[in-house]
Structures are given as structure tokens and as C-alpha cells.
Amino acid sequence: MAFQTLRASAQKGLRIGMISGDGIGRVVLPAAQRVLMAVGGIPTPTFIQLDAGFEHFQKTGVALPPATVDALKNECNAAMFGAVSSPSNRVEGYSSPIVALRKAMDLYANVRPVKSVEGTEGRMVDMTIVRENTECLVRLPLSLFSEGGADDALSVGSREQYIKQETIEDTPQGKVARATRQISERASTRIGKMAFEIALAGAEIRKQRGSTYGWQGPPTVTIVHKSNVLSITDGLFRESVRAVAAAYPGVTVEEQIVDSLVYKLFREPEKLSVLCCPNLYGDIVSDGGAALVGSLGLVPSVNVGDDFIMGEPVHGSAPDIADIVPSIANPIASIRSAALMLEFMGFTESAAKIYDAVDSVLRKGLVTPDLGGKMTTDEVTDAVLKAL
């Protein structure tokens, strides 16, 4: 059974680490907490407030305190992350805490459903992007791969070695920059298995709920790659995921070159279901998919491993609106991320109640300014709670 360890732990109690992070994370995460407390059908959650983020780095010199990782490993069986700021320019000693957290907790899959709402304007979209989390072009400390190396990797600076190696040099023709990418059979196989399990789980939920809206085809996984050009790295990803397919005869397997996938994403989104992507492609494709449903503020995600899960709205820290009072940040992605976390932990009925409540609010147009509305964060959250 998929996610057996995760679900067995959840039945004993929900101990959720709450990491607000940066910017609007401070307001959207409390919204998710309110909904988790109200939904019912789950063990009464215990919430543990924890630190991480660029703002914490600016205050302390550490983006992800070892104490946060220790608490997640020893006191929690799930977590929620609000948002993280990502400076465009290199900041000495800083690397993304969310990236480090994914590796420290072995959360090798980032799962991002992009779904439209029946009864609202726009095309039908019902896809899930399953993104490999631990390699490709990410600045991830290599010491996280060694036993006992996680704590040292969290606060070091330029002396740390990373999976993605970037260099720049001066030449007679000007500066030349290079980046080295890693793709492994192990990581590609794990993400492939996750994608196939998600395709099967989605089919089962649709059957149970008798859904007539959304994807109606057989369980289908589309492998996203660029192996026609990157024949070694993307070739290994493609071959590794394809090798997994033999264990899932009930799942249809398709392939799509990433650039043609983006074209199809906007031309025929209704023909896409579960997309299995290397890290970089998954990041780009999921943000593009968000445009199909109106806003990044609507799109949830979870970072999933075999025995831990962390909800994380896809949007960033939105510094342009972070300090507006009352807050106008859209809480829907955070609330949906909480529901998605519950779904993976086996509480599918409670998750469905949250999804339905959110959809009801969106149909009524009770939305924040990013979707053309005038409501505040708290007002939207209150509307979701009322719909529950």
C-alpha cells in the first residue's frame, strides 16, 4: 500500500510543524490552521511553531535552524510551510531553506495539482504535476546526502559543495558561465513510482465520489523530458520512469518533450492528467499551469516522502503586499495545501470537505484582489469556514 508508513503515523495523531517563513506566509499559514481545526474527521491537530526563511537568515545568519529540522524529525509527522523569499542576486551564506528541508526530510516529490472549478469560467483543467525534488538544477548541499551531514549543511556558507555546480570565468570574448546538472536513476525511479501511485489514487477517488467533472480518462502518466537534446541526463530520467511502468499495467504511459508540453498545456490542457517531471521542468510547468486557473494564489502543493509530508502553497512571499493591513493575500493555496496534506495522510473525506468548501467560495466570487475581488485574507478564510 502506498504511503502506508505516513498514514499509520497520522492515525496516531497529527503533530504539524508550522513554518510561516517570509512575507505573506505569516498570514496564509494561520488561515490553513483555522481550517484544519474546523474540518473534523481527523485527530485533533497539535501545531508546533518553527522558524526558517530569508528573514530569519537576515536576523540570525541561519536560514534553516538545526532546531527546526530536529523538531520536524522528532516531534512532528507533518508540516506546513508558508512562503520563502528567494533573492534574485546571490547572497553570501544563504541557500533556500525549503530546498534544504526537502532533502533533510527526504521529501523527494513535490506534488502540485492544478484544477479548475466546475461552474466557473475557463477551460476544464485537472492535472497534477509530480516534480522530482532532490536534484537537477537546484542548489542543494551535497553533505545532505551523507549520514549525519544535514545539520552542518544548514548554516554553512561558500565552503559547502552543492549538487548543482555553477562557475563563471573571464575569457577574451567576455564572461562565460556554466552550470552542471545531476540526474540519477534512484531519484528518477522514486519519482516515477510516486507519479504512478498518484495516478491510481486519483482514479480511485474519482470513482468513490462519482465525479463527472475533470479528467475522465484512464489513469495516465505523461513523462516530461528533453531527451532529444539532453540524451544522457533526460535520457536517464525517461528510461528510469519507463522502467517503473511495468509494475503498473493499469496506468497508461505517455511522453512529451517539455517545450511541446508547454504548448499543449495552453492549447489542450484537458488532455493532460499526471505529469512526471525532473525538478526544473516541474517548477516551470506548474507555474504555467497556475495561469490556466487564474492565480498562483489558488495552487497548492505538498512535498512528500515515504514517512513525512509538508504542505506548501506554490506562490512566493509576495513582498509587494506582505505588509498591507488588513492582509489581501490569497489564502486559498495554503488552505488547499492543508487539504492535500490530509488527503495523502489518508483523510480523504476531510480533504474533500475542504476542497468543496473552497470551490463553493470561488463559485460565489468571494475572492481577494489577485482574482479581481475586494475581500481580505480573513474574509475569504471566514467564507471557507462558513462553507464547511
Order of helices and strands: HEHEHHEHEEHEEHEHEHEHEEHHH
Helix content: 25-40%
The end-to-end span amounts to 30 Å
**What percent strand?**
15-25%
**Protein structure class:** alpha/beta
Task: State the major sheet.
Answer: 10 strands, mixed
* DSSP E strands, number: 12
Radius of gyration: 20 Å
**How many helical elements?**
13
Arithmetic mean pLDDT: 91
Low-pLDDT stretches: 142-161
Large-scale geometry: globular
Strand order of the largest sheet: 2-1-3-12-11-4-5-10-8-9
Summarize the SSE layout with pairings.
Layout: H1 4-11, E1 15-21, H2 25-38, E2 46-50, H3 54-60, H4 66-75, E3 78-83, H5 97-104, E4 109-115, E5 126-132, H6 150-153, E6 165-171, E7 174-180, H7 185-209, E8 220-225, H8 233-244, E9 252-257, H9 258-267, E10 274-277, H10 279-293, E11 302-304, E12 309-311, H11 332-344, H12 348-363, H13 377-387
Parallel strand pairs: 1-2, 1-3, 3-12, 5-10, 8-9, 8-10
Antiparallel strand pairs: 4-5, 4-11, 6-7, 11-12
Helix pairs in contact: 2-11, 2-13, 7-8, 9-10, 11-12, 12-13
